[in-house]
Design goal:
By secondary structure, the chain is mainly α. The chain folds into two domains: 38 residues; 259 residues, MetI-like fold (Orthogonal Bundle), CATH 1.10.3720.10. Helices cover 69% and strands 1% of the residues. The longest helix is centred in the last third of the chain and has 29 residues.
Length: 314
Amino acid sequence: MSLKSIIKNRKRWRLNEIDLYIMAWLGVLFLIVFSYIPMYGIMLAFKDADRVLNIQKALFNAKWIGFENFKEFLTDQKFRDVLLNTVGLNTLMLLINFPAPIIFALLMNEVRIKQFKNSVQTVTSFPHFISWIIFGGIFISLTDMTTGVINPVLELLGLSSKDNPIDLRLSAYFWSEMIFISLIKGVGWGSIVYMAAIAGVGQEVYEAAKIDGANRLQVAVKITLPLIAPTITVFLLLNISRLLGNSFEQFYSLQTTANLERSEVLTTYLYSTGFGRRKYSYAAAMGLFDSIISLLLLIISNFISKKSTGRGLF
């Protein structure tokens, strides 16, 4: 092939793939605008810019105080309580909510009636598309002590009484409620990626297992799970790195003065501190602390995964 024909084919390939270039660069542009450019605000964490009127001027003109903001929140008892709520609840959600979509995907893989399988997938995935504000409002209405339908159900089960109904808005019930509604909202949608991974497993593997006399449980545990382990590993590492992170809308929509003791997590505390009390530098320092710890968790968990299983994100 001559050099002229190679150049001609190269130009044709570039013209044919220009739409892919545009799509890729739109993603890069999104990251630059919303992830990298705002990083100059990290300077606030090292300056005294609390309660200033002009944040832009404070970034360059405010007094440099080094790590004083970090010392302040690390010695603050309120921050420790919030950190305990965040780590405790996220650890429970990691132990309970993370395996749930995997188990659900394995169960759906065993369903042989296609119409029933599609119906269940549609019903369980639908809550994902409801915003947390609406979903939280529905849940608050259902658990209302006087007008909600949950207390009558608890009465039928003998767990409550009409004279002494259970106030499900109290902080003592918040963690269990959050785990429960997170499962309802996320298990169907979260199972899609695992079902796609299962669909990529060759049918000859299952046929060989049946010939060897393996039952459905043995096939799921000894064949399906090991073959989708790389997908599980990726999502597990990402979930571990988010042990200090929560969806702001999820917690803010269900947060009340009655459950604030257990519902205040790092994301809502950052919001209330930064925008409510206008402690911009204090909140910026906590945000930077959150990002650094998340990065360290990702690196450490990935290192352990690579050493123990040979699989990791990088």
